[in-house]
Design brief:
The chain is mainly α and 113 residues long. The protein has 4 helices and 3 strands. A 3-stranded antiparallel sheet has the order 1-3-2. Helix 1 crosses helix 3 and helix 2 packs across helix 3.
Length: 113
Amino acid sequence: MRNPQHALKIDIDRRQTLPIYLQICERFKAAIRAKHLKPGDRVPALRALATQLNTARGTVETAYDILVDEGYLQMRGAAGTFVSSSLPASVLNLAAPRVRECADVPRAEPALT
């Protein structure tokens, strides 16, 4: 099992209108889609990330709860929080775009004159 906590860099912008907890969610989703975080990777503990971001623990907890509800993360009690081994289909579809089949290509309708 990999432990990329040292490499995970999450930046938030306090000037944005998007709440901090949603910025955290978006950063994690982007890191998972970009495969910087992979299934089974451990993510920072709530308190550690709250300290790193200089924000309240409850803010990070809200973000983690949303990510768990959406299937991005799994909480394993004292063992910690990990990237889900069964990521949402939307993430998997974005991560591996399929090649279009000939049948998928829309056909142009003949012009009526």
